[in-house]
Amino acid sequence: MKYLLHILVLSAALFWGACNLEKEIDLELPQYDSQPVVECYLEPGKPFRLLLTRSYSFFDPFGLDSSFLDKTLLGGALVTIAYNNRVDTLPNTLSLEFPPLKIFNYTGKNIVPATPGIEYTLRIVTPDGKEITGKTVMLPKVPIDSIRVEWNPQRDSLARILTYITDDRTQENYYRRMLNYSTLDSVPDQDFLANDRIAQTEVIAFGSGYELREGDTVFNTLFHITKDYYDYLESVQLAVIGNLNPFAQPARIKSNVGGSANPLGIFTCLVYDRDTTIIRK
User: Fold this and answer.
1) Does 11 map to a domain?
2) Which of 87, 137, 176, 197 has the fewest CB atoms within 10 Å, i.e. is most exposed?
3) In terms of domains, do 132 and 44 share one?
4) What's the number of domains the chain is made of?
5) How confident is the model at residue 57, as a pLDDT?
6) 250 belongs to a structural domain
7) How far apart are CA 138 and CA 48, in angstroms?
8) Contact 264/36 with Cβ under 8 angstroms?
9) Does residue 6 lie within any of the structural domains?
10) Quick one: 96 exposed, middle or buried, by C-beta within 10 A (0-12, 13-18, 19+)?
């Protein structure tokens, strides 16, 4: 009986002690150095455009007030893109595009040529005299061969779509497949990366889940992307996942721009095929 009593007393002491395990501490965080962030997507048939911003610390206030653009956009830089023995200068001019909403603060007058194989060189001189450089190449468009609608055999009110393309097996290719339901002016309902290393034949099929109903509209977009862009997107996805998990290791953004300005970002071409499907039985 005494032994049991001692156990109860010890358990109670441990219980009450455990209730006071919280302790507030102050951490000295290292000073965050803001970096220039480059996003430049060269889209055939559209003007040369670029977004140049400043990065924020994870703990910086991020208010969307009237001063947000002034605090975020990095103006006063010299931006040039060289290709085919010519150099285009992009003035510090704000421009928008819909849908979806895209913002650019450097906009040129010339149109991006669609010829595959053209190499582009980016050079930016920031207001403090530092430099950002990057290179990319225009890839050929990989067309969507066909789209097939399949109905769920167990629940015939739901359907999925299968998208077929022909892959060039003589080289390594990287893809980004996006599905938007109802409208393009929204976050994609499906957005994933793929490469052709997993493909056994030249025919590759991309599928969706059984989540579509009769009358739904599906915008199917297939991007043929460079390895640089593939690595960049993958690292951004991992960084987002890491921010949501307090126990995850921080993920490094794999940029393809560099230079004395210590930038982050991507300089690439956007080559894609898009098809619209209305789900019908």
Assistant:
1) no
2) 197
3) yes
4) 2
5) 76
6) yes
7) 13
8) yes
9) no
10) exposed
Residues 212 and 237 grouped into a single domain: no
121 and 89 in a single domain? The answer is yes
Please report, for residues 117, 146, 183, 253, the alpha-carbon distance to residue 234 in angstroms, rounded to integers and kept in the order given: 24, 27, 25, 9
Token representation of residue 239: 């960084």
Whether residue 96 is found in the same domain as residue 149: no
Are 122 and 188 in the same domain? no
pLDDT at 196: 87
Structure tokens at 104: 């650019």
Cβ(39)–Cβ(50) under 8 Å? yes
Q: How far is CA 62 from the centre of its chain?
A: 20
CATH number of the domain to which 173 belongs? 2.60.40
Same domain, yes or no, for 212 and 77?
A: no
